[in-house]
Amino acid sequence: MTISQVSKRCNISPDTLRYYEKEGLLSGVGRTEGGVRNYTEQDCKQIEFIKCMRGAGLSVAVLKQYFELFKRGKRTLKARRDLLATERKSLQVRLTELQNTLSRLDYKISVYDKALKSKTKELKF
Amino acid sequence: MTISQVSKRCNISPDTLRYYEKEGLLSGVGRTEGGVRNYTEQDCKQIEFIKCMRGAGLSVAVLKQYFELFKRGKRTLKARRDLLATERKSLQVRLTELQNTLSRLDYKISVYDKALKSKTKELKF
DNA sequence: ACTTGACTTAGAGTTTACTCCAACTGCTAC
DNA sequence: GTAGCAGTTGGAGTAAACTCTAAGTCAAGT
Q: Candidates 3.30.360.10, 1.10.1660.10, 1.10.260.40, 3.40.50.720; correct CATH number of A3-118?
């Protein structure tokens, strides 16, 4: 697959794909004789994984670390597991925060709806 | 309250507090005769609100817009409600995404745990 | 051979949200 | 009255994650 095909399929710009590769999140992307990137199905899966994790707030630096561990082979299995577990933990924390903020927004919107009905009072903020 | 007191209480740096004020998220912070910021309890509540919303990913620009509507008075009640509702919606979407990613991480960690037990196989990534 | 369009690289530029700096002011304590 | 500290301002600097530009290459079509 060419970069533009992967770009469309994964909905990530070619620039970003090149950037991820430069940062070491995609080490083994092959090239044609002409030097053009030739992505495999595996590459795509990995890109989807990266996209998913980036969406959840994992930094490019952490993902780089993860894939660098990978390159060092089987003996880093535990380290990778632990890295993921750490990220999982902080994701869980952020999830709970977001849930609280969602409730707070719901409450605030309900206060607005009441104020709009009574057509009299203004709010503090 | 002085800026350093608020900074401690809200756990936000004085620089950030000044930055928020400059950006219009805190319009009416009073000053002493000497020109020193003098925060009220209301100001603190507002700062907590800003912190909470920033934590949930609302941009400084959106919050600025919200407080600018506020300055225009009661006739912007509906606009403010709608702004909050829009943000609530996208927060909800992100929350669902994060939940999916959390599950994915859980699964991946379980795969690692299996691989660690059997002590034989490597993973794709 | 020549144009066209997609691709390559290195490196510069952008955006967001801070964070830091320099130069200055105004209390408070000695 | 002056040292020291907390505060002020305007503006410069930073980090992360892209995003864009310039200059060039390559393969296909005319």
A: 1.10.1660.10
- What letters, b where the CB count within 10 A reaches 16 and e where it falls short, cover B7-45? beebebeeeebeebbeebbbeebeeeeeeebebeeebee
Domain ranges of chain B: 3-118
Cβ–Cβ under 8 Å, residues A56 and A100: no
Please give the Cα distance from A40 to A19 (Å, whole number).
18
| Residue B77 token pair | 């009640």
Comparing C-alpha atoms, which of B29, B92, B81, B106 is closest to residue A116?
B81
Residue at minimum CA to C1' distance from nucleotide C27: B34
pLDDT in tens, B41-52: 999 999 999 999
Q: Look up residue B93 and give its two tokens.
A: 């979407």
Whole-number percent of chain A with pLDDT over 70: 100
pLDDT digits (tens, 9 = 90+) for B64-106: 999 999 999 999 999 999 999 999 999 999 999 999 999 999 9
Footprint of strand D on the protein (CB under 7 A): A 13, 15-16, 18-19, 33-35, 54, 59-61; B 2-5, 14, 18, 22, 31, 35-37
Using alpha carbons only, give the angle B47, B52, B57 rounded to the nearest 5 degrees. Answer: 120
Whether residue A112 contacts residue B77, with contact meaning beta carbons closer than 8 Å, is answered with yes
Closest alpha carbon within chain A to B82: A109
